[in-house]
Write a structure and sequence with these properties.
Structural class: alpha+beta
Shape: globular
Oligomer: single chain
Order of helices and strands: EHHEEH
Helix content: 40-55%
Strand content: 5-15%
Length: 71
């Protein structure tokens, strides 16, 4: 059985990411560098804008809630 992921991805810009996580961009950048937060992706056409894949951010949020509830 082959399961295909939904190819339609929603991207979050910095403001949307701050609103969703309640974290500052500085905190997100630090967590990214530590490998503890989903990595940003560069967006075409010029690859100077960045965004985060909402599904990855949702998974990160869910995992953090699960860890907190387990302790």
């Amino acid at each position: 059985l082959l399961l295909l992921r939904n190819l339609a991805m929603r991207m979050l810009n910095k403001k949307q990411l701050r609103d969703k996580t309640s974290l500052s961009i500085q905190s997100i950048t630090r967590l990214e560098k530590e490998g503890k937060f989903p990595r940003r992706v560069k967006l075409p056409p010029d690859f100077t804008r960045v965004a985060w894949i909402e599904e990855e951010v949702n998974d990160w949020l869910y995992a953090n809630v699960q860890r907190q509830r387990a302790s």
